Amino acid sequence: MGDVVEIRASVAAQVAGFVDAGGGVGERSVLVKTLGHPEFTVGHQMDKVLPAASLAKMILGVALFEAGGRGDLDLDERVRVGDLGRTMYPSVLQAMDSETALTVRELCGFSLITSDNPAAEYVRALLGQERIDAVIKDLRLDSTSFPAGFSEPELGPLGRANVTTAEDTLRLIEHIDRTARLEPLRHYLVNYLRNDRIPSRLDDDVQVWHKTGSLRGVINDAGVVLHPAVPIVLIFLTDGQADNVRTAQEIGEVSERIVRTVAAGAAH
């Protein structure tokens, strides 16, 4: 194993480079934590409250499986595709006949694998705000607020009411990672189809379970790189970005450098 101090310093330099690449425009919050050896945490503005966007869908998943585990909700209840809301964004559900019935469990899967908004909004309404807030409280996500949904009118300025921090997101990720009954969520997230950020420059055989979030000027991504040398949590929260596409590319570039650095150190 390489020198932990040296590896940590190298990762810190990569994080600083990503922050500096923003040119002082907007906000960039970063958190890197290894879940094995070498073990360390590096971050920048980890307690900065920023828009969560679709990262909040992971909270829905936790709340749904918690409710199902208690017997409060039947995750195998079937829902007609035609009963879901509509969206101006591309949706796999649009390929299905309106009479096709999916289970609540499968709708949760769609909301996390494809970030489908109508599926997420159905799950949110089914849960109700009280169950969602209970998960936020139980996990001590003290700077997280999730009052808005994913209907079309809420995807603009109203959607910015959903906020979190990198520190809270780490607590959420670690809970999903270590909780046996949440294995379905990990399965959904490792099959996430929007891979233009953290996984974009990693080798195809390196699995990543993660969730992105996007609004105007907001490019987020958070999850776990399941590198065989050592699992690595990577969290990127941003706001006020001038070029969403470029910020997404920069997240991919710095993620690749961080993973390469940590994996090389873990191998020695």
TrEMBL record:
<protein>
    <submittedName>
        <fullName>Class A beta-lactamase-related serine hydrolase</fullName>
    </submittedName>
</protein>
<dbReference type="GO" id="GO:0016787">
    <property type="term" value="F:hydrolase activity"/>
</dbReference>
<dbReference type="InterPro" id="IPR045155">
    <property type="entry name" value="Beta-lactam_cat"/>
</dbReference>
<keyword id="KW-0378">Hydrolase</keyword>
<dbReference type="Pfam" id="PF13354">
    <property type="entry name" value="Beta-lactamase2"/>
</dbReference>
<dbReference type="InterPro" id="IPR000871">
    <property type="entry name" value="Beta-lactam_class-A"/>
</dbReference>
<dbReference type="InterPro" id="IPR012338">
    <property type="entry name" value="Beta-lactam/transpept-like"/>
</dbReference>
<feature type="domain" description="Beta-lactamase class A catalytic">
    <location>
        <begin position="30"/>
        <end position="235"/>
    </location>
</feature>
